[in-house]
């Protein structure tokens, strides 16, 4: 096996968190190599089509997603430049302070090893670098932090209509905070609100990694190798330090890349897969897995769509995929009269929708076929409205990534993912769907209906914690078992609150990179 | 404070510029596709069943290219396919999903109505589709009936309402940043 020239840092994965790490570490003068399993994609590869866009999504080595409530893996993942963030919706929220203490406050999930105050400056730093559009004053729920650097997204007709519904029920809405340029920002053009975010934004307005951190990583000197699958992390003889990785390139050659420090940023499935595949005599359960929790506590957000048909035009094709409005009036955690579940949810309202695809108009009515379906589509094309409840679900140890036996010796085993929602999440979904239909009706919908309980975002699998007996990493993402092995991404989350995770994953990576730079001597 | 934005955004010159880049994207996308991992193309019998089945679920699907679509996707390597089935994380053969499902539809039609799918009236086909959508048709042997119905219906919606022509048929501007030069990917 050929040995490559040693580098300071190997980053595994060119998605959002890996790109933040690579950019920050390269900017600090480290020699950084990024290995990405998927293909190189530029902005010009992002075709405006919900059909073509499916090529951005998926995890090819997933063999099966199963359990009582199988996770939607393909929709929530992606490989290649930018990873899943290449097709993300740029809904960038901060977790709330109470999200970090769910065990000590409510006796569920697990506490984070850090609190909101530990992450606040990193949120602010990422926000300043990327540019987030919003209205901090209107978000009465927003944790403390710097004001948004960009003005909020304009409100189109659908947003105006749905705001009526929330306000009629005494609920507050605010412009949805988005990592989307609403005016020119650091050389990026402003959004034109055509609603192709899900297909990958080629304009540069949406802050996908190709536009931000991955681009900056390359500009700072990081070297990115696509179609390079890291198959194993290699440790020293005592098993206390990573010394590099074995990677298979696009020609099928296996190479050894020595490195002083390794960052695994393969998202919630590929990261535990790699750790499990890197088992040694010293780490027989898999690397960094003395706790036995690698691959476990995988969780998601309990989500559901609510839909409405109006007599008036909604211009529902305009805007951005993530939505125009947010409401976090239902974020409170404790169960209460009329609230038979722990944990909260938020509403993302007034999505820009396309006629087809998983979140499009057509899939809102799977019951209709034939001419009745076609008439519905014609009626709904410009008189439809939608919103999504993003709800908290409790991480369960039984929800996991595991290997499927049968791989060849020099191949990584494929994955099986097992998941069920806790009963709490089922009750939350039921509650939110009833409320959502009431909001639609209050907004003037002539018909309101809702979709099933679905999974949204992938979290956990390599959770952080203070106790090495029950977690994989510390609060910086450093593995308890190895001094120079770090993990980045939402796989670190011990619990996920009820907000989209990309901003928090980015802030965590930003904080970890700063720590690596400042503690380089001790870590390496 | 929030701003009210009641105007459709103007089409800036940038949108046209990005459209011009679409040709480059297509060239890049089509050339490296390999045939190695493709599955068997549709037979004539399966094609006929597919066309009628999809047109039952979403009228217009046949004319929009139902057979060409499925055939082209099954010829692509699995990770390059854009079939709606991709979203379901279906672990088995894609071709078997469709072929077994179509065969099951036809068998059910004969069992319940005494005629194959192709011979049924429009009303008979709709009734059959409704029985499949309910999820537990008698003696069904194929992929889960409800899933098969849902996926095929979504494929039909892609073809009739999700292409440039389909969206414009609904009276909506397509508003592409980078316009697809083909409705769906094919082996280049």
UniProtKB/TrEMBL annotation, chain A:
Domain of life according to the entry: Bacteria
InterPro entries linked to this entry: FAD/NAD-bd_sf (IPR036188), GMC_OxRdtase_N (IPR000172), GMC_OxRtase_C (IPR007867)
Glucose-methanol-choline oxidoreductase C-terminal domain: residues covered: 408-509
Domain Glucose-methanol-choline oxidoreductase N-terminal: residue ranges = 10-302
Pfam families recorded: GMC_oxred_C, GMC_oxred_N
Could you list the residue ranges that cross the membrane?
none
Keyword entries, A-Z: FAD, Flavoprotein, Oxidoreductase
Q: Name one GO molecular function term.
A: flavin adenine dinucleotide binding
Family per similarity comment: Belongs to the GMC oxidoreductase family.
Name of the molecule in the record = GMC family oxidoreductase
* Species, as recorded: Parazoarcus communis SWub3 = DSM 12120
TrEMBL record, chain B:
InterPro entries in UniProt = Gluconate_2DH_su3, TAT_signal
**Superkingdom, taxonomy of origin:** Bacteria
Q: Does the keyword Signal apply?
A: yes
**Entries under PROSITE patterns matching the protein:** PROKAR_LIPOPROTEIN, TAT
Q: Which residues form the signal peptide?
A: 1-36
Residue ranges the record marks as coiled coil: none
**Alphabetic keyword roster:** Signal
Q: What is this protein called?
A: Twin-arginine translocation pathway signal
């Amino acid at each position: 096996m050929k040995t490559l020239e040693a580098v300071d840092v190997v980053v595994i994965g060119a998605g959002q968190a890996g790109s933040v790490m690579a950019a920050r570490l390269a900017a600090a003068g480290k020699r950084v190599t990024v290995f990405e399993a998927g293909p190189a994609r530029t902005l010009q590869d992002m075709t405006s089509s919900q059909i073509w866009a499916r090529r951005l999504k998926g995890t090819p080595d997933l063999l099966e997603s199963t359990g009582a409530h199988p996770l939607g893996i393909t929709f929530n993942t992606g490989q290649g430049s930018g990873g899943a963030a290449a097709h993300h919706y740029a809904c960038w929220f901060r977790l709330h302070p109470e999200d970090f203490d769910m065990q000590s406050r409510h006796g569920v999930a697990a506490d984070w090893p850090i609190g909101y105050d530990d992450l606040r400056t990193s949120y602010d730093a990422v926000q300043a670098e990327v540019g987030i559009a919003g209205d901090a004053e209107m978000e009465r729920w927003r944790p403390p932090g710097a004001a948004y650097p960009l003005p909020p997204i304009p409100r189109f007709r659908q947003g105006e209509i749905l705001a009526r519904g929330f306000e009629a029920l005494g609920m507050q809405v605010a412009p949805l905070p988005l990592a989307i340029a609403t005016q020119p920002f650091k050389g990026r053009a402003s959004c034109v609100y055509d609603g192709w975010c899900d297909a990958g934004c080629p304009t540069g307005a949406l802050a996908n990694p190709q536009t931000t951190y991955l681009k900056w990583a390359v500009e700072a000197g990081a070297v990115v190798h696509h179609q390079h699958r890291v198959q194993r992390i290699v440790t020293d003889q005592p098993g206390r330090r990573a010394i590099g990785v074995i990677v298979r390139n696009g020609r099928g050659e296996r190479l050894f890349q020595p490195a002083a420090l390794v960052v695994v940023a393969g998202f919630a499935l590929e990261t535990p897969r790699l750790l499990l595949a890197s088992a040694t005599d010293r780490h027989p359960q898999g690397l960094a897995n003395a706790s036995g929790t690698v691959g476990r506590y995988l969780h998601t957000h309990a989500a559901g769509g609510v839909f409405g048909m109006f007599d008036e035009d909604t211009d529902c094709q305009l805007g951005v995929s993530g939505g125009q409005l947010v409401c976090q009036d239902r974020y409170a955690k404790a169960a209460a009269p009329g609230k038979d579940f722990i944990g909260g949810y938020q509403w993302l309202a007034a999505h820009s929708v396309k006629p087809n695809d998983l979140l499009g108009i057509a899939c809102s009515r799977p019951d209709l076929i034939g001419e009745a379906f076609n008439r519905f589509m014609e009626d709904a094309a410009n008189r439809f409205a939608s919103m999504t409840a993003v709800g908290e679900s409790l991480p369960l140890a039984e929800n996991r990534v595991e290997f499927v036996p049968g791989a060849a010796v020099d191949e990584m085993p494929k994955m099986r993912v097992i998941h069920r929602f806790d009963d709490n999440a089922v009750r939350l979904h039921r509650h939110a769907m009833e409320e959502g239909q009431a909001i639609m009706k209050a907004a003037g919908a002539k018909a309101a209906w809702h979709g099933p309980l679905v999974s949204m975002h992938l979290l956990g699998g390599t959770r952080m914690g203070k106790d090495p007996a029950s977690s994989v990493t510390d609060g910086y993402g450093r593995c308890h078992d190895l001094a120079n092995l770090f993990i980045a991404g939402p796989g670190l989350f011990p619990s996920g609150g009820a907000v989209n995770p990309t901003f928090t994953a980015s802030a965590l990576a930003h904080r970890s990179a700063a720590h690596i730079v400042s503690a380089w001597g001790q870590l390496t | 404070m929030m701003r009210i934005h009641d105007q459709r955004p103007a089409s800036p010159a940038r949108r046209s510029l990005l459209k011009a880049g679409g040709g480059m994207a297509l060239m890049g996308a089509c050339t490296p596709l390999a045939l190695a991992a493709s599955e068997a193309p549709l037979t004539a019998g399966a094609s006929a069943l597919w066309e009628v089945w999809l047109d039952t679920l979403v009228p217009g699907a046949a004319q929009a290219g139902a057979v060409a679509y499925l055939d082209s996707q099954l010829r692509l390597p699995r990770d390059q396919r854009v079939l709606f089935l991709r979203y379901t994380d279906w672990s088995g053969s894609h071709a078997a999903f469709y072929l077994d499902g179509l065969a099951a539809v036809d068998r059910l039609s004969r069992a319940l109505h005494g005629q194959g799918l192709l011979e049924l009236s429009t009303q008979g086909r709709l009734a059959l589709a409704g029985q499949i959508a309910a999820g537990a048709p008698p003696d069904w042997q194929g992929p889960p009936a409800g899933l098969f119905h849902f996926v095929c219906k979504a494929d039909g919606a892609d073809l009739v309402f999700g292409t440039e022509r389909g969206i414009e048929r609904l009276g909506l501007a397509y508003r592409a940043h980078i316009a697809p030069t083909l409705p769906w990917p094919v082996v280049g």
